[in-house]
Amino acid sequence: MEYVGWDKVTTGTIIESFSEPVENVAYVRPEERPYSPMNSHEASVASWRFIKPVYNRDICIDCQFCWVYCPDTSIISRDKKMIGVDYEHCKGCGICVEVCPTNPKSLLMFDENKPNEEALSEWPEKKKKSKDK
Amino acid sequence: MAEKYELQEVEVWDGNMAAAHAFRQAQIDVVAAYPITPSTPIVQNYSKFLADGYVDGEFVMVESEHSAMSACLAAGAAGGRVATATSSQGFALMVEVLYQASGMRVPVVLHVVNRALASPLNVNGDHSDMYLGRDAGWINLCSFNPQEAYDLTLMAFKIGEDLNVRLPVMVHQDGFISSHTAQNVRPLQDEDAYKFIGDYKEVDPMLDFSRPVTYGAQTEEDWHFEHKAKQHKALMESVSVIDDVFKEFEKLTGRKYNRVEKYMMDDAEVAIVALGTTVESAEVAAKELREKEGIKAGVVGLRVLRPFPLEELKDALKNVKAVACLDRSAPGGTLGMLFNEVSAAMYHSENRPVINNYIYGLGGRDMTIENLKEIFKEAKANADAGKLTTPLQQFSGLRGPKLAFF
Amino acid sequence: MLEMRWHSRAGQGAVTGAKGLADVVAKTGKEVQAFAFYGSAKRGAAMTAYNRIDDKPILNHEKFMRPDYVLVIDPALAYIADITANEKESTKYIITTHLPKEELINQIPKLKGKEVYVVDCIKISLDTIGRAIPNTPMLGALMKVSGMFDLEYFQNAMKSVLSKFPQKIIDANMAAIERAYNEVK
Fold it and tell me: Is there a contact between C11 and C74 (Cβ–Cβ < 8 Å)?
């Protein structure tokens, strides 16, 4: 973002969401919205992460807990079906993993540098319930 | 649709009733208020107008003045014409949001019925609240009587909402001395008043869902300075719109307003600079001194406190030998604000009159014609001596041993 | 410039009286001012209200006044309030009392030698309006003493000032004004 002078900043420090009007924005998908350069959507926070959530479609039950709890709206879900993680905006906080109710979890934190395919190959087995021990 | 209010050519209104009618005629979208003496009758009258079918807008009773200003600011950001009224402690509670309103460039109109700040508790008029808010980035218009309280309230909407201004505007009137004093007021008819102000022009309204905007962004050292500088520039440049609106109002009503008002200043040797009703009382004193004692006295009243009319003030005082600056607010450990600002203006003037400072009228203490004459006479002594013959700061109308500083 | 001071108790209608008078006078093209000292602002507390009337716009905002007329609408205040404060030689007093003028002056020696008029605004308002609201009768007495307006003109003007009230109340006030106009001595 360019550090413009006083003559170029917006009046009243308002921040436009979009660079052009959008009708019925609730029905326009994020990737189709004309986000303005000042919108935080346009700022990547990927570099904040040391660890990342990896999503396992095979276990997920589409409960949407992660989508509800993610503080950075970085869980991508369409028509109540989980798709994956928006790595441009995920800061690696791990809340999605905390709230995931499946066994084993459908989201797990891995080292940022580990490729997702490798992470998926290391996915843990279902844990036995304590009474079965 | 609101009913038309039958108005006489001349009404006998106190300043509060005058302000309430100006609010009604402006067809405000949202008035959010928490009434406080002496401004209470403004919102009380307004809510009665609403109950009687003369107002279409929303009237929101909130639980504090902080919320009153917050609700006005929010409704303004949403895209409506907004206004409220307050005084003293209520004003003090609004201060945080006053800075938000000017920073967000939302043209809220705030009618301030000036009253002392506690402690000790006092409901009467002085300018403590006006002085408290003077750096808040608002346009400050000052009235000297109920007619002007009405006129300036109408003009406040037109000035603040102008697309080249977009700043909140305060209109000040003296608590009780103007707010509760009934005088002849010549109002505009409803349709003429509204036509003068015009429809509200939305700018970046939050309720435009096709173009969502964020109000109240955080900026740190990398952006804050630029935004505040831009805001200051807008306030400084609002003078041309203020002058235009004053002119347009004069065309409509014949009543002429100037950012600096001058009375008998053409040949004045000594002058009082003041705010509020004292400006008019000082006129009476100046006239009597001219007629009975041959002292060439004049009066300068600040109609617009912010943006500060520095050049106009210099011009008004260009021929005087002595100036008395009258501050109706406890100075809190320094000279009065008017003294400081008038002195700053005159320091770079070709004319360098002797300037002194009087603190007066705190908590509604009567400013009598006799007090004002005494001040003029001391100014005359300063003018004759060509230097200060009194301490820099004195107190007019104070009981007890003489108190003076500097 | 004509200046008047009202002595009243908060709630007796001095402010309404002062504003009503201002309303009527303004209709004749004059400039008016009406204000009050609220003091402790409790119902029943002694208070003062003021009128200024002039042909030119009134610029004087001082509360200090050397009144041409002092209007006392509460009988006890004639004794306990400083009704002669800042008086001039020509100050005229109109005082609400049930006493004959001479007896009142004997009881309040500072009124000796002054131009004093008496009228029982309390009794008149009780008889006509049914409540001790002595402001409109005082205005009737003031019209007689000052000769400001004749009775009929003043009554008509007051009718429009009171137009928001029910007819019964307007009629009672008209009767009160007329009685005070005729009874003030």
Answer: no
